[in-house]
Amino acid sequence: MLYRTMGSTDIDVSVLGFGCMRLPVIGGKPDAIDYPAATEMLHHAIDNGVNYVDTAYFYHAQNFGSAGSSEPFVGEALSGGWRERVNLATKAPVFLIKESDDFERYLEEQLTRLRTDHIDFYLLHGLTGESYDRMAALGALEFLDAARADGRIGHAAFSFHGEAADFPRIIDAHEWAFGQIQYNYMDVDYQAGHAGLRYAADHGTGVVVMEPLKGGKLAANLPPEVLSIFDRAATKRTPAEWALRYVWNESGVSLALSGMNTMEQVVENLEIAGRGVAGSLTAEVLAMFDEARSVMRARVKADCTACRYCQPCPSGVEIPNVLASLNAATVWNDPNPWLTGYTQVTGGASLCSECAQCEDICPQGLPIRDLMSEAATLFGR
Ligand SMILES: NC(=O)c1ccc[n+]([C@@H]2O[C@H](COP(=O)([O-])OP(=O)(O)OC[C@H]3O[C@@H](n4cnc5c(N)ncnc54)[C@H](OP(=O)(O)O)[C@@H]3O)[C@@H](O)[C@H]2O)c1
What CATH architecture is 3-281? Predict the structure, then answer.
């Protein structure tokens, strides 16, 4: 296992972190974690050098927004001496926090669920510019400072799913150990993106990468044209290795989380992590990723540049976001609302009243009414 120092802390973390969001479950039920299988995987990873475990209040919940079974699982799996061997990260459930006292209440509940007296890295979960402002107004930063001072939190951090422009101002707002961002060779300019990664690193803040395999799509669903690009490389690697190596090639990345759900994936990713040296990919190899990205982007349905001329829509449709999800669905041939980001679209396509105001103004000349109709059918709203 390779280790990197987390931002400006003195903590060395394994380049591979164990994400506890996609653990094996029984009977397809999201909250029914297969304890024996998942425990064996987690212990194997720790025995082979993983020293970072990521969970959250919501992970493995039956319904989105309720308490999940990931934290209690992690609490049990790390009991009996394992807890002391890892840095434990979990997240304040930002979407549920409505008043200042909620911070304290959820932290105490999470300590109990995790069977520990401290959380090494405590994140504000899934921030956007808007939710950060709401948390700051409720006193989140003061709360995090106080919980650090009394030892219940080792370091404060945040995960981010907002617009690129909001990432630097959140980085600048506090002494964060890291920002956690969605990053992989397809998402270099999505959300925080490569610019955000470099901004954090240049300011001494760590970067934890989530979705390095785009939730598995970069490992299992690559179109044949993309596979043939990687086949040209002198050294043969699996699609999972290409994707993980791309992330670890960045010196600003502290660690990449993977939400592994089989022992085979744990074994493979542990092995790949041993080669995850920053700057180890040649210019020739990096050009392959650019080519792969272009090929995949050529599969997009609507050539929307997100100029936002169409916004605000009189009916409240978030047209650029709907189109981004529609494009993701066609690139990956999968309308999964999580994969495509449609879960975060509040102004869904079915709100479209076909007034055509957007079509009159769209610089790309897109047939937006038809595209909204297609998206509404595909995503069900
Ligand atoms: N804070 C947030 O807002 C947030 C959001 C997302 C994620 N996260 C955290 O970040 C972690 C990582 O994100 P992620 O789970 O999306 O990571 P990921 O590595 O992009 O995707 C994990 C999926 O990739 C596939 N996979 C992993 N290793 C593989 C291998 N060697 N070969 C083939 N397929 C492989 C598996 O999917 P299949 O077996 O289904 O193909 C697995 O479920 C999560 O577990 C969670 O802890 C946080």
Answer: Alpha-Beta Barrel (3.20)
